[in-house]
Amino acid sequence: xxxxxxxxxxxxxxxxxxxxxxxxxxxxxxxxxxxxxxxxxxxxxxxxxxxxxxxxxxxxxxxxxxxx
Length: 68
What we know:
Layout: H1 3-9, H2 22-32, H3 36-46, H4 50-58
Helix pairs in contact: 1-2, 3-4
């Protein structure tokens, strides 16, 4: 299990997303089941802390861009 997957599954995780690392962004997108566009939008809105990003995504901030 990747660090990203563990953090994505932990509702209290305070891990930060390294948006300058393309491979990490791809892993985060997979772990969160979102497109890279949705992840970028979330980070622009709430920053790179994963708990904030997950809250934003689940609140519908980028629901139209979720992979599915």
